[in-house]
Amino acid sequence: MSTVANITVPSGHFIGGQRVEGAETFQVISPIDQRVIAEVARGDQSAVDRAVDAARAAFPEWAALGPEGRAAQLRRLAELIDANIDRIATVECLDMAMLERSLKARVIARGARNFRAYADLAASYQERVWGSNSTQNRVIRMPSGPAAVITPWNAPFMLSTWKTAPGLAAGCTVILKPPEWAPLSCSLLADLTAEAGFPPGVFNVVQGIGEEAGAALVSSTGVRRISFTGSPETGRSIGLAAAANIVPFTAELGGKGPLIVFADSDLDAAAAKAAGQYDDAGQVCLAGTRLLVEESVRDAFLERFHAGVDAQVLGDPRDDRTTISPLIHPDHLARVEGYIERARANGDTIVRGGRQPEMGGLWYEPTLIEPRSNDSEVVQREVFGPVLTFQTFRDEREAVELANSTRYGLSAIVYTGTQERAERVGRAVRAGTVWVNTFLVRDLTAPFGGVGISGIGREGGDYALDFYSDLKTLQILDGSTA
């Protein structure tokens, strides 16, 4: 057990309804002060095998409950999440340093919404029924089996629920591998599933390092679905492991989203939204990190943007005055700094920021870079830190060309005052989600995912429930049954 801000967090894996300690452990360090806040079990092949065996043993009973039976337990879990928002938020803030007020106000509660949404969707599923060739046809969802879920560190609790909720609602059992840099809130989630009455083995957690526990999990022949969020490099490795066992997988692999501002837009709103892309220290895959602004309003936009960034406050994420938190880990800070130094060496212009503040630690100043060309590394690759690029365009055609000029395609943001342009540009930009005059408004029934190297497959709504299911066509000859 570990005590984090006077909250007890179990340190062992959660397998078959029980806590299981490991032969080895690893330390969890808070980004706020780089202090060790916990030491947790380090999963290996044996822990993964045990968790997969538990998930396989629990699968028949869980699948047989049916959508309504499973929905009752998912709704109970949602109630428990709502009742524990402050506890979970406190632990997650120390674990990965997202603003505590954001965690308490919306992020953790989204976890409860995820379970309620999928409980309702699964229970309301209508089988497709039709007649053809003198037969009655019916499309039936069959739960696919144990599912491996691997989540990132930038919103570990919410993203774990986003992936596990549809799997559980569809009738799969789950083995969750939380991020090694921020595993603690997922440990709390395991306790809540037990309190909600989930049968042992339905929900399992194996903590550990990606190259060890994660690799063992996605290579297991007992796993029938894999859902991953992380880097394209890791996604490729998981794809190879999934292919070896012919296991369907879905992967969300980050983004390099454009934020396109046309001259006819509300510049105050657009600039404020652009300045807000530094939220969570820029560690948001959906962020609009490439500012593309119509040339005629360049100066007017930048004046408003700089005023917005000047109002940002770097500080302790537990302090309500703070708007920008530290980066997750020293290794990640070094990665972000590497991008900045290479941009300087490339001749890109550092318009603002580009260094650590005097407070040191893992904070990094909000940075804006005007690249020498669209081919600059800082334009073409995801930095995943408080770093935005700034480019201008002459017309709508050039705006779309720039927007579509990277290999990513997760999301995009467009600001315009013209409905016709909103439709044209919204359709022309290649991205899984395009927001117009808004950002991060999510309908949980809508598909979510990316194009290009931003990922494969879709999460959200019935798209996720279909992923965790094998579809069967039942065809019965007319008149052949009483």
Detailed description of the structure:
It is a single chain. The longest helix is centred in the N-terminal third of the chain and has 24 residues, at 100-123. This protein is 40% helix and 21% strand. Helix 1 (45-64) crosses helix 7 (210-218). The model has no long low-confidence stretch (mean pLDDT 97). The protein has helices spanning 45-64, 66-83, 85-96, 100-123, 156-170, 184-195, 210-218, 232-244, 267-275, 298-310, 330-346, 377-380, 396-403, 419-428, 461-467, and strands at 2-4, 7-9, 13-15, 18-20, 25-29, 36-41, 129-132, 135-143, 147-150, 174-177, 203-205, 225-229, 249-252, 257-261, 288-294, 349-352, 367-370, 387-393, 411-415, 433-436, 455-456, 469-477. The chain folds into 2 domains: 2-253 and 450-474, Aldehyde Dehydrogenase, Chain A, domain 1, CATH 3.40.605.10; 257-436, 3-Layer(aba) Sandwich (Aldehyde Dehydrogenase, Chain A, domain 2). It contains 15 helices and 22 strands. The protein has 482 residues and is of the alpha/beta class.
Summarize the structure.
The protein is α/β, with parallel strands linked by helices. The protein contains 15 helices and 22 strands.
